[in-house]
Amino acid sequence: MGKADFLSPKAIANRIKSKGLQKLRWYCQMCQKQCRDENGFKCHCMAESHQRQLLLASEDPNKFMDYFSDEFKRDFIELLSRRFGTKRVHNNIIYNEYINFREHYIDRDPETIRRQEEQARKKKQDLDDEERSAKFIEEQVRRGRGGKEDEVRGGEGTRGRGGEESPVFTELKRESEEEKVAFNMGASASIAGPSKPRYGGP
C-alpha cells in the first residue's frame, strides 16, 4: 500500500495530528520516539529497534536512568532560571511548560535528519550568496567613488577628506539694494554670487 496523496483527507488529518503535542503516555523514553496513539505505541514496542534499545538498557539500567534524570534536571533548572528568574513559582507550572515544549524530544527519524542537513546546507549556501553579493556591491561602491575622485581632480576647488570637494566660503555682500541674491541649494554645494537683475521685456 503506497503513501496517501498529499491532498487526500487522510494525509491532511495526519499533518494536523502531527502539528500538536501528543500524550506523554505514548512517548518511548528509551528510543526517544513520540507515537501518535495507542496502536502506534504498541507497534513501536514490538519493533526490532525498540527491542535492541531494551537489551542495551537492561545491561546497565542505572546508567540510562541517571542520564535521563540528569538531562531532565539540567533542562528543568535552565527553564526555571531563564523563564522565571528569581520569582517564586510552583514546580508543576515549570514542569507543564517543560513538557509542552515539543522540540525537547529528539527526533532521530532518518528523514527528519536528512531534511535538517539539507536546510543547514541551503542556509550556508544562502549566506555564501549574500557574502558574494555584499562584496560585489562594495566593489561597485568603491569603483563609483573612484570615478567621482577623478572628476573632482579635474574640477576646481580644494579637496577635503574622502576625496570630496570642499566649498569655498565667502562673505555675503550686495553692491546695491536693487540686486537680488540667489542661493544654489542643490547636491553640488557651490555658492552663487549676486545675480544681475534682468531688464527688458520679451
From TrEMBL:
Basic and acidic residues bias spans: 132-164, 171-181
Any one GO CC term of the record: nucleus
Pfam families for the chain? C2H2-zf_KIN17 (PF25095), WH_KIN17 (PF10357)
Domain of life from the UniProt record: Eukaryota
One Gene Ontology molecular-function label:
double-stranded DNA binding
Coiled coil start-end? none
The GO biological-process annotations, alphabetized, read as:
DNA damage response; DNA replication
* DNA/RNA-binding protein Kin17 WH-like domain boundaries: 52-142
Which interval of the chain is the signal sequence? none
Q: Could you identify this protein by its name?
A: DNA/RNA-binding protein KIN17
Record region (Disordered): 116-202
Tell me the organism: Liparis tanakae
